## 1
Amino acid sequence: MPQQPDRKKTIYFWIIFLAVFGVMNVLIYNRFLKKQVSEVGYNVFMKMIDEKTIKEAALSSTQIIFEGKDGVIYKTGLMEDANLYERLYKSGATFGAEIEEPMNPILYYLLTFGIQILLLVIIWRLMMRRLAKRSGDDPDLLSFSMSGGRGRGTGRIYVKSKNDVRFKDVAGEEEAKDLLTEIVAYLHEPEKYTEIGATLPKGALLVGPPGTGKTMLAKAVAGEADVPFFSISGSEFVQMFVGMGAAKVRDLFKQAKEKAPCIIFIDEIDAIGKKRDNSLSTNDEREQTLNQLLSEMDGFEGNTGVVILAATNRPDSLDPALLRPGRFDRRIPVELPDLKGRIDILRVHAKKIRISENVDFETIAKTASGASGAQLANIVNEAALRAVREGRKVVQQDDLMESVEVVIAGYQKKNKILTNKEKLVVSYHEVGHALVAAMQTQSAPVTKITIIPRTSGALGYTMQVDEDDRNLMTRTEILNKVTTLAGGRAAEELIFDEITTGASNDIEQATKLARAMVTRFGMTEEFDMVAMEVLTNQYLGGDTSLVCAPETQTRIDRMVVDIVKKQHEKAKEILQQNIQKLHEIAKHLYENETITGEEFMEILNSSENTLLTNPEA
Ligand code: ADP
């Protein structure tokens, strides 16, 4: 029996059913009244002939069935009556025709009741199918209950679907795909492995930042191997009452074993797989669930054909017991895509929309450096929406470029009016960054500078695009970056002799970099190669926790301040030496609101020095 996926919808179902049931029964009842046969005497029959109230009559060898003009059906016995036909003829009744004798009322009711039950089953099945379709992102997803135990579950099974995910749909992530290919091969031909005595890993853990395609990869493994796919989120196991989560785990494995070969996919496994520790606030339910999962994983043989894939973006918080060989012993990193990966992902998603042929995906992928697969998919969709907004039928390059900015900095704020003074400050601030960057590297530091406010809160921003993906950063590069970050504030100080709140984000970033130099990258003489901080939650923004004595912390803070201060001074010096260019470019930006990298370099390299004497003019 299908599982009840949604309470509210089941209530609607019952309301509709009762209404249909009620109406049908009223109809049946009415029909009974009308079609009821009344047995009457022959005299009534004769009287009705005289009164000419008979519509139709059928005469058999033993009885007469006749229908009055009132719609009622009568029955009477056949008598010796010589000129019956003549009289009937005179009365205007049709006779000789067969009148259907109504069915036995009880039989009739039983039959109609059967139809009602049949109707109920059909409606129920249709509803379940629609609900199941809606409850998953796959049109062929069936949802069914987990039998037994208290844990009525939400284990879902994908039956073979027509438009399932394949490896080719997951762009980039070649290493992850390579590692998963073996699992696919095993699910295809388990005999090949069992013959030689090899046992395949029972589980593989997909580890990486959010939106990099972990769920997609797991679906693709099921799609490639053409096996059912059970998908459940770790948080669904965590229930209010102790023992319910564990029951769900039991149910899930029981069903999976019945459907083997198949794949179980547990998303966000950290919800149940967190380290069991001795902290006072124990979570019995979660621990029981985890224990059940561990014992289930131990409980089945490697060759039953059940492969467990799990995804997490917090691998460091997982219980070591979960990671030991025989459980999730394969760890598959699913990292943010590199440049090629980003181009491929954009291409995969661009296939779903109507796009101009001369779109340069490489430029877009370069601009969207650091974006995840999900963000890139979003960029393509935003571009399509923009094209529609602008009344075009085809997506163009500038739609994609604008949507990259939307994803990075939010939408343009059309009604945010900056005062002229503010606009000027923002212009100098942004050009300050760009100029400092340009003077340090002697190359185009930016692709675009704009002072159009965005919904992210940025009043303006400088878009930098690196030619290649960078994996390493030198000490000088980090210092240069801190100087560039300080460039905005330095410009404000130089020109307006006043500082604003606009630099808060720069300050945050500069501090983070300087701190990492001291505590994690071993880039100071004093601490040499000693780690003072460890990185936790690497895939979720990268928090750090200090691992040093309180006195050392004070020294670290001192050193961080020194680094930032020194680079701030350097930024001021650079701008002081190029103050005319600062005025020139800022004026241009102030007037045009957006300038490109080429325009920036043109002004920077031009020889005329038109000094703005009064910046507020
Ligand atoms: P995760 O499970 O890692 O958080 P998902 O697999 O749910 O991420 O991905 C979310 C969406 O992002 C997918 O539906 C897909 O549209 C897009 N996406 C992510 N990574 C890729 C990729 N490598 N190739 C194509 N699309 C991707």
## 2
Amino acid sequence: MPFGYSGFLKKKRNCMKEIVLSGIRPTGNLHLGNYFGAVRNFVKMQEENQCFFFIADYHSLTTHPTPSDLHGNVKQVLVEYLAAGLDPEKATLYIQSDVPEIAELYLILNMNAYMGELERVTTFKEKARKQPENVNAGLLTYPSLMAADILIHKAHKVPVGKDQEQHLEMTRTFARRFNRMYKEDFFPIPQAYNFGAELVKIPGLDGSGKMGKSEGEGNAIFLADDPKSIRKKVMRAVTDAGPEKPNQQKPEMIENLFSLLKVVSSSEVLTHFDEQYNNCSIRYGDLKKQLAEDMIVFTEPIRQRIIELSADESYISKVARIGAEKAHESAKKTIKEVREIIGFRSF
Ligand code: TRP
């Protein structure tokens, strides 16, 4: 193939890359559930797509954080995602509030977002019920801001969990409405992207349900946990009195420990304990010890990077600055077009 032609193909392929976008709430620390449920897939996706990943700090104002909490959380989240493998050279990593075009698009989308449809959103109803003293307009219009996040880069795919599907449906509604009103096919209609077979459920250590930071002390293993606290949490995980007859089905709390082994341990280790369970010779203490050590092997390099990155203010601010620039460039282009087609023309 002539030299120039393959270069052309490469370029063409590049510009046809699908745009993937996701927002990250700046709350708390990443745990193994976040890692295997989302972050690991972001890391893979940045290889094949044009990815935008951002920290949703405008969104977080609905809960009125103090300025220092807000800043600290944003930094922590940025550090942890970098430590877990997001690469600022491959993906555009930015902080939402560094791109004020998003706020402008949000304002514009709000003009065609109706009270009735916003009030029907499940997350809104839940929040309103849980915090009746703080049902602010930002909470109500959360779906318009999320739509602005997505549409500002004309994203095609949005990797989100089940809990965000209704929000994404709203984005599609707003995009279609805008296209109908102003310009056919202007915004691509974004699709949810939920990893299919890659999706693994990571349970917590308290015997039931999934790993989560709000599920109580000791339920989640954080990427920033030191070996000592990992051992302590794992050794305290809930178990039962052990199997009574060969090959019996594992109760949820035991199944959960095996699910965790599955993600951090080798297949030999998994088979070993599985056989022991099935012939009733298992000692949960041994399983937990092994699980804790394998978790440590997995998390320790990430924890070290978290420590290094946290101390490297200049690198972190460089990452944020470069991300802001790239995101800004893409957002500016969309906003310019939007202003034009809705009739904001300069005199
Ligand atoms: N609402 C998402 C969450 O709570 C975060 C988010 C904000 C987001 N804007 C987004 C996700 C845009 C995907 C796309 O997790």
